[in-house]
Specification:
With about 325 residues, the chain is an alpha+beta fold. It folds into 3 domains: about 80 residues, Phosphorylase Kinase, domain 1, CATH 3.30.200.20; about 190 residues, Transferase(Phosphotransferase), domain 1, CATH 1.10.510; about 35 residues. It is built from 9 helices and 11 strands. Helix 5 runs antiparallel to helix 7, helix 7 packs antiparallel against helix 8 and helix 8 packs antiparallel against helix 9.
């Protein structure tokens, strides 16, 4: 059921519906105690009698509440009002990564900036033994300040607890039912597709799929049906990188493909390692860009010097021009 504006759930007053999905409806609400607006996620009444769905909903609250990181959405409260289960988190202003990705992809510098934030958030979750298992552009939010936030740990797996059984199914995360695969077809890891145990390296595969899409503007394993998509995840490599958004450094492409190795043991073994490599690459690219700008400037200066200099130029002018030319080729 949906809730009308001004409906009271515990200390929270509903303002408006933000969106809905298989794991619940999300409302903008007012915290009447602290006088602030929050995001309130409600599990639909039709699910409250489903122990598995209810368990996963409560698991999201436990998983996210255990984390304190700028790249993970903050959870404020969890409650039950008249049989209605809800979780309260910070209200974000901005847009999802899905809305940010264009058909031509992002400039590599911007994609790296966001990917580093995603890797840092995942590293914090993985350190606490939490695996997201449903990473996708719709679950990643970019605030107006440019900060990336990981959302919706509703399918998170607490590795310190016993995992529920998983088998392959054709539905997406929004349609998942007990006994079917947990995840979204286009971003699942091979081990998720096969119904095997998924650890933090499964998130790293999903990270690579998302990063690929950020750079290329198209999914790494896009097919007509979920079954075809999962077959591609198991047996095929992503297409060659597009140049629609500009040249992609070979080192960056290697990082993305390393994330999407079919065997977990052949991928990056930690999100920290991904963040480190991306930050190093970003620094290198920035330095090269600075050198290129400097050389371009020097070329213009040398060209102007040559054009304006006469054969009777003063010796110190010739010396200055020689210095600029040496700097240009440094």
């Amino acid at each position: 059921m949906s809730f009308a504006p001004d409906t009271q759930l515990g200390p929270y007053k509903i303002i408006s519906l933000i969106g809905s999905g298989g794991m619940g409806e999300v409302y903008r609400a007012r915290d009447t105690r602290l006088l602030r607006d929050v995001a309130l996620k409600v599990l639909p009444a039709s699910f409250t009698n489903d122990p598995d769905r209810l368990r996963r909903f409560e698991q999201e609250a436990r998983a996210v509440a255990a984390l304190n990181h700028p790249n993970i959405v903050s959870v404020y409260d969890v409650g039950n009002s008249g049989g209605v289960h809800y979780i309260v988190s910070e209200l974000l202003e901005g847009e999802t990564l899905r809305q940010r990705i264009t058909p031509t992809g992002m400039p590599s510098r911007k994609a790296i900036e966001l990917a580093v934030q995603l890797a840092n958030g995942l590293a914090a979750a993985h350190e606490q033994g939490i695996v997201h298992r449903d990473l996708k552009p719709e679950n990643l939010f970019i605030t107006r300040a440019g900060r990336l936030k990981i959302l919706d740990f509703g399918l998170a797996k607490l590795r310190r607890e016993r995992a529920i059984d998983e088998t392959v199914g054709s539905k997406t995360a929004a349609q998942t039912e007990a006994g079917q695969v947990l995840g979204t077809a286009g971003y699942m890891s091979p081990e998720q597709v096969k119904g095997e145990a998924a650890d933090h390296r499964s998130d790293i595969f999903s990270f690579g799929s998302i990063f690929y899409e950020m750079l290329n503007g198209q999914r790494a394993f896009k097919r007509n049906t979920s079954a075809e998509t999962m077959t591609a995840i198991l047996n095929e490599d992503p297409p060659e990188f597009s140049l629609k958004s500009g040249a992609i450094p070979p080192a960056l492409e290697r990082i993305v493909r390393h994330c999407m190795e079919k065997q977990p043991g052949q991928r990056f073994q930690s999100a920290h390692d991904i963040a480190f490599d991306l930050e190093s690459l970003s620094t290198t690219c920035t330095c090269r860009a600075a050198v290129a700008r400097r050389r371009s400037c020097l070329r213009r200066v040398v060209k102007a010097e040559h054009a304006g200099a006469s054969s009777q130029a003063a010796p110190h002018n010739v010396s200055q021009r020689d210095h600029l030319e040496r700097a240009l080729h440094a």
